[in-house]
Amino acid sequence: MHDWIGGVDINSLYPSVIRALNMSTETIVGQIKPEATDQFVKAQIAQKKSFADAWNSVFGTLEYQAVMEQNNTPVTIQFEDGNEVVVTAKEVYDLVWNNGKQLTLSANGTIFDYGKQGLIPGVLTDGLLNARSCRQSIASGPSWQMKPLILMKRPKPSGRQCSMTNGS
Fold first, then answer.
1. Which one, of 39, 109, 25, lies nearest residue 75 by Cα?
2. How far is Cα 87 from Cα 7, in angstroms, rounded to an integer?
3. What is the pLDDT of residue 15?
4. How far apart are CA 168 and CA 54, in angstroms?
5. Are the beta carbons of 27 and 119 closer than 8 angstroms?
6. For residue range 98-121, what is the model confidence (pLDDT) as tens digits?
7. By CB count within 10 A, which of 42, 114, 118, 157 is most buried?
8. Inter-axis angle of helices 119-140 and 13-21, to 10 degrees?
């Protein structure tokens, strides 16, 4: 029996994005090099802005924005197999969304394959399903007070218990 337990909010923004984009190391197809973005940030810092201020009102890399605008800006993709190719942002858009492949693109320019579930999104999804099942089980059982599970001393077992591994 463990004395200390931790909790993860699997419904919050980051886990939701990880599940939605299938973000996991084994699902990475490639990365758009942030060449224009790096130049932009350096120019902002040269104007005495902080790194954080350089990103003020900017969502995603400039390369990502070019892809979403489907324009002819040249971008470089580094693929996981080591190949590197320079294409237009529109060609990247077509590769990701009009190719019939199950790909998606994150705002930092990482291309993910969502045709196979990644380990991390799978664990988060399983944890979410088990947590829901556990809450339903608890709700239908004897009175139970849910408390945040962020590094608090585990109480002595009494009554109904749930496990994140099997949802029972």
1. 109
2. 43
3. 72
4. 48
5. no
6. 988 999 999 999 999 888 888 777
7. 118
8. 130
CA–CA dist 97, 6 (Å, integer): 38
Angle at 110 between CA 69 and CA 40, to 5 degrees: 60
| DSSP code for 109 | S
Domain borders along the chain are 1-16+118-153, 25-113
Whether residue 136 contacts residue 150, with contact meaning beta carbons closer than 8 Å, is answered with: no
Token look-up 């973000």 returns: 23
Cα–Cα dist 39/44, whole Å: 9
Nearest alpha-carbon partner for 37 in 57, 63, 59? 63
The 3-state DSSP class for residue 104 equals strand
Tell me, what amino acid is at 159?
Answer: G
pTM: 0.66
Question: CA-CA distance, 3 to 1, in Å (whole number)?
Answer: 7
User: 4 CB contacts (<8 Å, ≥6 apart)?
Assistant: 151, 152, 153, 154
